[in-house]
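Dear colleague,

Thank you for sharing your sequence with our group. We've completed the structure prediction you requested, and as agreed, I am returning the results in plain text so they can be pasted directly into your records. Please verify that the sequence below matches your submission; if there's any discrepancy, let me know and we will rerun it promptly.
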Amino acid sequence: MRLFLVKFFLVLTLGLSLQSCETLKNFNLESTSTDEYKDWSEEKLHTSAKESMDDGYYQKAIKMYETLESRFPFGEYAAQAQLNIAYAYYKNDDSEAAIAAAERFIKIHPRNPSVDYAYYLKGLVNYNRDIGFLERFLPTDTSQRDPGSAREAYNNFQELISRFPDSQYIPDAQQRMIALRNNMAMHEVHAARFYLKRKAYVAAVNRASEVVNNYQRTTAVPFALEVMIEAYKKLGMETLANNASRVYELNFPDGPPVPERESRTMAGKVWDFIGFDE
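Please find the predicted structure tokens below.
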């Protein structure tokens, strides 16, 4: 027991020592980093930060832009620095910081000529928020994931369109909104199929009806109708099943116009086979 206590205190002391060293190291690095830009002009900070951004050194760019903003709050590049900080955080995969910086820019500069980009950037951050390492290299069906970020992105782009109908970012935002709407609709289809598989037919109909009623003209509609037809049949509601069948045959006589997963990579097929998304 005594030996255990001795070892425990040795480990605890060593851990505290290492933590203290790390804290001092960070403090020294911070001091060195701050001193590095001590005599820099606004122009030099702006140019160097942009070069770092272009080279992919986003953390370094953030540090320089923040230094520029704090030292020259009313300077020529102060507002642009704030916007660039938001973009750098986005590129550095720090979603929360990127959105916070964009919202700060909107609040401080509501009439800035570039404020529409801040609204667009919020949508872009949420659009890509859940794309991590696995999604980049092992593509999965994102419609099976929580659609919370997709809804946020859709609302962000919608706000951009309503506030700035002439913005140069509208065409891209509109294309992303189409993809997001299809994605959210297919999420409802997956939920409906989940209930169908578990014989919760009423719940399946409700989720499928959500697609038919609220996501018209999306690629998910024929798949939602298929769920409704099967669920109604299981419930013994032949009239409703026949009605859904007539709607399907009238609008999709050759089946779904867009395959559910039109382009599947080998990695995606392996992912589906393993069943990680189910």
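Summary note from our side: Residues 2-12, 14-33, 132-140, 262-278 have pLDDT under 50 and may be disordered.

Kind regards,
the structure core
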